[in-house]
Amino acid sequence: MTLLLGCIADDFTGATDLAGMLVRAGMRTVQMIGVPQAPLPPDIDAVVIALKSRTTPAGDAIDESLAALKWLKTAGCRQLYFKYCSTFDSTDAGNIGPVTDALMRALNTRFTIACPAFPENKRTVFKGYLFVGDVLLSESSMRDHPLTPMRDANLVRVLQRQTDRKVGLISHETVSAGATAIATRMDSLRSEGVEIAIVDAISNEDLMRIGAACAGLPLVTAGSGIALGLPQNFRKAGLLNRQAAADQLQFPQGLRAVIAGSCSAATQAQVAHYIDEGQPAFAIDPLRIAAGVDVVAQALAWATPLLRDSAPLIYATASPDNVKMVQTQLGAERAGALVEQALSAIAWGLVERGVRQLIVAGGETSGAVVGALDVDGLHIGPQIDPGVPWTKSLGDAPLALALKSGNFGSVDFFTKAWSMLP
Hints:
Blueprint: E1 5-9, H1 12-24, E2 29-33, E3 46-50, H2 58-74, E4 79-83, H3 96-107, E5 112-115, E6 123-126, E7 129-132, E8 135-136, H4 155-160, E9 166-170, H5 172-175, H6 179-191, E10 194-199, H7 204-213, E11 219-222, H8 231-236, E12 255-260, H9 265-276, E13 281-283, H10 286-290, H11 295-303, E14 313-315, H12 320-330, H13 332-352, E15 355-361, H14 363-372, E16 377-385, E17 388-393, E18 400-404, H15 413-419
Helix pairs in contact: 2-3, 6-7, 11-13, 12-13, 13-14
């Protein structure tokens, strides 16, 4: 087995997002939960190592990322990819800049790019400014994110505050001129002492051009969008000649359920839509958990008789005002931990009751759930919505899992996902 691309993702749903894009571009891909401890399945072109390092202290994020890099280098990966969120989630203390610095030192490279653009999900970069839909990142709902509030849309400034390396820009005028122009601009920036370049992108065509220009870079840092443009380089070099569709999987059948922990605007709308369709739903209240109520047992008792005839939803999704109220009373860290522990325990209980097809909304929630279910890795299947594929867990008793970033997916995402499975 020759691994062509080795990827390090800073959260679980981000890893799934990236892996789904690689599969879509023709690379058979597995996602591993943490640094692999066992051999990978055969016939794999790319591996994505999912960490939970987006909001951990920068030192911890660096250590985890370097451990993943060491494994990927030992596995012989020809190119490395550090994946972060398409909204560049980070604070001035990190973690995008510090992790990028550490990876560059370990790879002994003096230049890389940073491009979180994902146009299909309305994340675009123009003149170095990140847009979410038609508004600047700093005017979007990410402005008030409880862990990584993004109040500056200028990515050159944002990243420069996180690194001592000089940060520059490859503007859309250059990107639209093609891969050769981008590569020439990279050379020019190197001569100016720039070591990390923010790259504009407003379309998939831009991503393909950028990907082609990155063929010789040891390290790429980006959201998942650039993944569309990298496989062509391996194909051109004669290293990727797959004929069968990379997303073909046989999914397990069984009972179904939905777990939602994200409080993003997109997940709020998806939860409301699912309930409006008449699907059964059970709300998790962190204050009741903190008061000692066995909410896990109550949720499982409620869900058990419903599983044979429906796909019940158990959710902690709430409005920003309610989230702030709970965080004021419990503290943001404790409130998040209580919810994650409860939802992961509920997921384990649902699987014990025969659930084999599970949708999970929210990056932190997905990480907690796959940990509770002792999932080591995932085969990546067909895309449900941009950035969100169905996956099948590795092992003898596989599960069908859709691990959705909180901000991703159409309003009818849950029902759309179910319609794709037998």
